[in-house]
From TrEMBL:
Name this polypeptide is given: Holin-like protein
Domain of life: Bacteria
Subcellular location: Cell membrane
Keywords of this entry: Cell membrane, Hydrolase, Membrane, Transmembrane, Transmembrane helix
One GO cellular component term noted in the UniProt record for this chain: plasma membrane
One MF annotation (Gene Ontology) recorded for this entry: hydrolase activity
Keyword Transmembrane helix assigned: yes
Length: 112
């Protein structure tokens, strides 16, 4: 029964996120809105952590299985990925460098 309650709370936040995403005049991932909504409810104390802890741990324990369909779907686009591998690597590396520079700069500003 505890897992049903946990999944019901998580699923309710996801459905609320889908509804909010439907109302927005621009496209935004409903799952992200649902996660932000769940985080806000947890932070405000309207939902207790115990209400979602067991269900969340179960989902996290089996998360690797959820990426198998995505990886299999990417195989159908292997030719496009091969053509764009240079740009993908450049974007990934430059994004990493920019994030490291921003975090380093912010850390120096906050500690001095």
């Amino acid at each position: 029964m505890k897992l049903i309650r946990d999944f019901a709370v998580i699923f309710a936040c996801l459905l609320a996120g889908k509804f909010i995403a439907f109302l927005l005049p621009f496209s935004f991932p409903a799952s992200i809105i649902g996660l932000l909504l769940l985080f806000g409810l947890l932070s405000a104390g309207l939902i207790r952590l115990e209400w979602i802890l067991a269900g969340g741990q179960l989902i996290l324990r089996h998360m690797a299985l959820l990426f198998i369909p995505v990886a299999a779907g990417l195989l159908s686009y292997a030719d496009i990925l091969n053509q764009s591998i240079g740009f993908i690597l450049f974007a990934s590396f430059s994004g990493l460098v920019l994030i490291l520079l921003a975090v380093g700069w912010l850390y120096q500003r906050l500690t001095s």
